[in-house]
Amino acid sequence: MFFLKFSRIPVLKIACRVANMILKIKNYRYENMKTIAQFTSVATVAILLLFSSCSNKQQGSNPMMGGQVAEYLVQEVTPQNITLYQAFPATLEGEQTVEIRPRVAGYIEKIFVDEGDYVQKGQVLFQLNANDIRAQVRSAEAQIKVAESQVATAKIELEKTEPLVEKNIVSAFQLESVKAHLQSAQAQLAQAQANFANAKANLEYTMISSPTNGFIGTFPYRVGSLVSSSVAQPLTTVSNTSSMRAYFSVNEKAFLQLTKNLEGATTGEKLANLPEVDLILPDQSVYPQKGKIEIASGIVDPQTGAINMRASFPNAEGNLRSGGSGNIRLPNYLNDVLLVPQPASYEIQGKHFVYVTNSENKIVNTEIQVIAGDLKDVFVVTSGLKAGDKIVVEGITTLRDGMQIKPKLAGQAVAKSNEPSNN
């Protein structure tokens, strides 16, 4: 009866009464041990009731512990065809970039163009001081005249000797000696003529012209500088930029992904079937002309694991300059790939995971492999999932491996590319 009576009293009232009774016990000075035992029993019951009440409240707040299964949004992964864009840093060079170097030594006397000018093939760029070379031309010309006179003298000597040999006045040996002297004079004449031609060529080399159309580079040397063919830096460069070449590198994995779905028996044939590519300029705008992949190195750099490639872009308006930079954006066409929303995954130490529901509506923590790209809000899954799997797409921070849920099917993930606008 005693316990039934207290069981009808609310828990908080019991706790208060127990506290008061414990205070009164101290005044009894342990005179009635039976009373102490009764109040101890009451206190124990009150504490148990209090814990039971708190436990019931906690169970009511947790649907898993209260027998209720929480509802979570899930999504079925299905194969899709997408285009994945990847960007690679590139360096721009003109179709033809020529170093302008002097072929003869001399002081720069005149500069006819300025840095950055556009020049035509054959246009004069520099003039070197030619005084010394002109003197060499005159000297070579004089040597020709001397050699010519020596040849003439040798011919006269031969004409005089031949009749004397016929009359046995002089020996045949003397005749052969005269002929040899004539041949020597003729050789000296040829040498003098070659020296003259070389001196005239050197005189022409003092006028330095552009070998191609293009833009002038910088001038490391100015008027009055002594230059020669062995100087460390060229006088300038001329870049033919009517067609620009973009040089870039891709890692071996990206190269294989890029070419594996292309038609062709060889790498060259596959590259020929690559679609046109875009050039992203430093201001993030897209160059209006499309480019074409031309070559790919047949060797993987053992230091970097990269393959060097080249794309060509038309540049009739001259908007691109040699030495510039940008990013080559390559399209990678993927067929029958699985997509998962990025918020449906989480990352631990560089690895990606999702929660997959099984036939019992229990979730399984599953690692997935993904492709890096420019898709918005979704990952391209290469392994870890199969078509038809259902993954939890919201509230994943509240989930635990093996937890049972009530799945609610959501729509399919859609790939949205970060493809820049041409506007």
How would you explain this protein's 3D organization?
The chain is of the alpha+beta class. The chain has five domains: 60 residues; 91 residues, conserved putative lor/sdh protein from methanococcus maripaludis s2 fold, CATH 2.40.420.20; 102 residues, Efflux pump adaptor protein, beta barrel domain (Elongation Factor Tu (Ef-tu), domain 3, Beta Barrel); 50 residues, Beta Barrel (OB fold (Dihydrolipoamide Acetyltransferase, E2P)), CATH 2.40.50; 75 residues, Helix hairpin bin (Helix Hairpins). 32% of the residues lie in helices and 32% in strands. The protein has seven helices and 21 strands. The chain has a 15-stranded mixed sheet that branches. A hairpin with a 2-residue loop joins strand 14 and strand 15. Helix 2 packs antiparallel against helix 3 and helix 4 runs antiparallel to helix 5. The longest helix is centred in the middle third of the chain and has 36 residues. The radius of gyration is 47 Å and the shape is elongated. The two termini are 89 Å apart. The N terminus is likely disordered.
Percentage beta strand: 25-35%
The rounded Rg comes to 47 Å
Give the uncertain stretches in residue-range form. Answer: 1-9, 26-34, 49-65
Helices, by number, come to 7
